[in-house]
Structures are given as C-alpha cells and as structure tokens.
Amino acid sequence: MNPANKATMLRIILIPFFVACFYLPFPHARVAACAIFIFASLTDAWDGWYARSHNLVTDFGKLMDPMADKLLTCTAFIMLLGIGKLHPVFVIIFIGRELIISAFRLIAAEKNIVIAAGKLGKIKTVLQCLAIIFLLLDNPFFNKIGFPFDQVLVWAAAVFTVWSCIDYIVRNKSVVSSK
Hints:
The protein has a single domain (3-176), classed as CDP-alcohol phosphotransferase transmembrane (TM) domain (Four Helix Bundle (Hemerythrin (Met), subunit A), Up-down Bundle), CATH 1.20.120.1760. It has helices spanning 3-23, 29-53, 59-82, 88-110, 119-136, 149-171. With 179 residues, the protein is an all-alpha fold. It has 6 helices and no strands.
C-alpha cells in the first residue's frame, strides 16, 4: 500500500476519534474534534497530490479516497444535525448526493470502470469541509459581527452538491445505459 492510500486509510481511522472528541464533556471538545476533522480533511488534499505527483494513482485510491471523504463528511453532518446546527434538508441533500454517486461508482466498478472525482465534486468537498469547520467552531470571527458565514457556506455547499451530482450523472450516464 503506497503512502497516498495509507493517508486515505488514516482518514477513515480518524473518524472514531473525531466522533469521540465531538461528544466528550469538556469545554474545548468541539475544537479538538474540529482539529481532527481539519487534519483528516488535509490528508485528502495531500493523498491526491501525492498520488498524482508520484504516479501512484491506483484503483484502490480512486474508489476509497472518495469513500473516506464521504464517511468523514457524512459523519460530521449527522452529528451537526443531532445538535441542531444543520437543517435536515441539507443533510438529506449532502448524504443523498453521496448515495447516488456511490451507486454510480458501484455500477461502474461492476463493469471494470473506475470513475475519478471531478472538479465540481472537489469544490463541493472543500465547501462542505469549510461549512463543517465553521459550524463546529460556532462561526468564528463572523459571529462577532453578526454575519452568518457558516450558513453562507452551507448554502454554497448545497448548491455545489446538487450541481456536481447532476454534472456527474450527465458525464457518466453511459455507465448505467443498457447498451
């Protein structure tokens, strides 16, 4: 297993630690959870860069990297929903998109086709991660001036989530065709 794939696996391993910190009853538990989330998210950027720059892109990485991202972000969305920081409609949009894309990838894998993430999906991931960070930290900086930047990020993430889903389906519709 190459270093990029190890970073992907590390991201999955960090999820229980993220959850544990989120629920620990101490004053800065959410800050600790956020730090773990940020570190895990940065492994996503690093593993993609490393794999491409060292010509180590693998089918495992193409499949597991997006799955690790989905696990991390969906876990955060569900936890934020549970404490009332995120409206259920957004969680449905975010998780629904991931289920649709995962279904596409499963069908493609059965046909020995691996579909890598596109640029819109990457923008979606960045916006979702930023929204999660700002929600975890109670809208730092902007809260003091009364600007709901965390909600702006949530809405932007939702727009890119829907847009990237539609784009993904259109670009890969041949995967599910009956021909």
